[in-house]
Structure formats: C-alpha cells, structure tokens
Amino acid sequence: MPAVEIKPDMYWVGVNDRTTDLFEGLWPISREGVSYNSFVIKDEKTAIIDLAKAMKTDDFFGQIADITSLRDIDYCVINHVEPDHTGVLRILKEMAPDMTIVCTEKAAGLLEAYYGVHDHMQIVGDGDTLSLGTRTLQFFSTPFVHWPETMMTFEPSEGVLFSCDGFGGYGALQGTIFDDECQDQDFYERESLRYFVNIVAKFRVSVRKAIQKLADVDVRMIAPSHGLIWRSRPERIIELYQKWCDYPDTPGDLAVTLIYGSMYGNTESFMNAAAQGIAAEGLDVEIFDAARTHSSYMLPYLWTRRGVVVGAPTYEGALFPPVWEVIREARIKGVKNRQLAMFGSYGWTGGALRDLVKIVEPVKWNLVDSLEIKGGALPASIAQAAAFGRKFAQTLKQDA
Asked: What percent of the chain has pLDDT over 90?
C-alpha cells in the first residue's frame, strides 16, 4: 500500500505481511496476515515512529522516500525493540547516519544486544517530551505491554497515540488503514482478541495499568503497531482491551468451549452427543479438535467463555497429548475461574481426568462433572454423554 496521510504532515508508512506463516514463530497468520505499522511526522524535525520486520524493505523505504529523504530523518522513536518492530533498523541507520534513536533506557540495552547499536541515542522516561518544532511528542512508559522496555508515544495537538503492541491485532489491512472505512470491522475485532490472548494476555495487569495511565489523556486516534488505526471510535478498542483484561476475574460469557481429541473415534462420538446435549439447553458451544486446530484459535474462546468441556481419551495413563497441550497453554496464558466438565474413553486403564485436574488446579477451574467410559461408543454410553452435556449446561445456567 502507498503511504497514507493520517493527519496533516503525519503519515502511515507500514507494510502488510501476507506471507509469514507464524507470528513470533508460533501463532498462525497465514490466512489472516498482519500489518507492521510505522509512522512519519514531518515538522521542523522529521521523526519516524516504530519500524517494521526485516522484510519487503524496498517497499518500506520506498514509502518513506515518497514523503521525505531518508537522510532527513532526525529521530527514530523505538517504542519496542522486538524484531517485528525494529528489523530494518540497521539498514535505516546506514541510510540516515545522523539520526537519533529515541527510546527507554531498557530499550537501549536491548538495541545493543540485538543490533549492536549504541550511539546517537536519546533516553526518555515516563512523561518526557521531544519537540519537533510546532509539534511535541510525549512518551508514556508502559512496561510489559508486552516487553519490559515498551513505551507509547503521544502527539497532543492531534491527539494521536502511537500505542505499539497495545490495542493491536492480527489481520493484514484490506485496502484501508482506518476503522471507519473498514468493511469488516468484526474481523479485526476478532483478530484483535486473538492477538490479545496470544500475545499480551499473560501481561493483562500491565495492560490494565497502561489503560489507567491513559485515562486522562485526550486520545482522539489510536495508531497501534499492528492492525487498524482507530480514528472514528478510538474508545472502542480501549473498551475491548479493558473488557478482555477483566475476563479472568469474571465468570465469563454464558457459553461453552468444547476441546476434544480422539484416537479411534470413540471420544469423538461422545463429543457429538455431549454437544447435542449442551445445545439442547440453548447454550452456544464452539467445538475444536485439539489435534487439528492450533491453540491460537482456541484460546480466545477459553478466555471469554464460562464453560469448558474437555473430551479426551486416556493415553498411556494420562491426558491425550494434543488436549494436554491446549489446556497447558491456557494455564500459561492465565485463563482462570472456568467451570469444567470432562468426558472420555479408556481401555486398560484411566488417568486422563486425574491429569487434567492437576493441570488446571493452579488457575482455579472448577470440575463440575466427569464421565469416563471404558471401551467403545455403545448406544448406552452415547446416551450417557448426551445427558452429561445437558446436565453441564443446566449447571452453567443455574449459576448465571
């Protein structure tokens, strides 16, 4: 995409990435893509805020060159050192050797470690400002949103908050960078939730502190490092992030996430019956095969929904490994206070339920019911699974 003016003499110069399979080498984005948003402000001094991953460098630098000579960049504001934000830094320094890097003290140490960069630096702290001439940049320290060195940059005259990973989301930009011009905002909100749970949920307390710090700041536009720029309703993405931060401290939405795995089809048969029982009680149930779905897509449902049903056979005396991996990931991310039911099959020995309870005990999942069936999916056990699902749904509704 060509550069886009977001305010007078203030430009988006980002890059869309539709070729990377895994964000951070872990989270799938091959279908959705992602944007690396960078911004140029032209004034008496010229500043670039955030950079991009070391890919499509010709496109990235070509966009900047359409606005200003690279040698005329006076300041490079590094909100966050992670390589998807700074991958082109070494090349930019070669093109703009007199440029000053503006960053936090912790960021300076990381820039030395990643890129060997240590000169032409200006260290800023919480509340510090930098004059560009007629415009001033103000810096807010937001540690662990989502690395310890992270900050956000604010331009007060236009009310633009360059929020780094805060308020960001997956999803390559589809011809526009603005929320009010986007034809499928629901997609970006869903992908913002997935990004939140995958990337920053572990640091939700820090995210909440950052939101509180910005409460009295006159933010009229939010320009994150990934995803849409929120110029029409910046409060929308703030409200969503606040809501998502609060989920582990709430019962969650009255709906069910069903995570299952099956070796020979028996547990899958029980799953279909249990899901039918849940749906018969009027509750929405989202079903995932743990062996064939990446945890990235399951975590948002586990994060937001009250009920979790786990269907898994016993495998070598323990929980079926693909299901074990998902539940373990949910615990790491801090999915708390969920209502849990577990069903599954076993042959010569059980053990899956015991293993599951051990995993979720630290995050206070409440085991409401369990159903372990020896052998195959016979008609009587199928009926048991349907009744099991219906009973669990009834319990959730009673507690609502």
From this structure: 94
C-alpha 60/C-alpha 80 separation (Å) is 18
Residue-wise pLDDT for 198-242, tens only, equals 999 999 999 999 999 999 999 999 999 999 999 999 999 999 999
Q: What is the pLDDT of residues 308-344, one digit of tens each?
A: 999 999 999 999 999 999 999 999 999 999 999 999 9
Instruction: Residue 263: name the closest of 349, 328, 321, 348 by CA.
Output: 321
Q: Give the residue from 181, 158, 178, 183 showing the smallest Cα distance to 224.
A: 178
Domain boundary residue, one of 196, 218, 246? 246
Domain containing residue 349 = 256-399
Closest of 102, 205, 198 to residue 149, by C-alpha: 102
How far apart CA 268 and CA 381 sit, in angstroms, is 12
Q: Which two tokens stand for residue 248?
A: 């582990």
**Amino acid type, 114:** Y
Would you say residue 251 lies in a domain?
no
Report CA dihedral (358, 364, 369, 370) to the nearest 10 degrees: -20
262 and 237 both lie in a single domain: no
Which tokens go with 35? Answer: 């944007």
Question: Which position has the token pair 């749906």?
Answer: 279
How far is residue 173's CA from residue 64's CA, in Å, rounded to a whole number? 18
Determine the distance from the C-alpha atom of residue 213 to the mean position of all C-alpha atoms in its chain, rounded to a whole number. 21
Residue 308 contacts residue 257 (beta carbons within 8 Å): yes
pTM of this prediction? 0.95
> Where does residue 116 fall: left (phi above 0), alpha (psi -120 to 50 degrees), or beta otherwise?
left
Give the Cα separation of 294 and 32 in Å (integer). 14
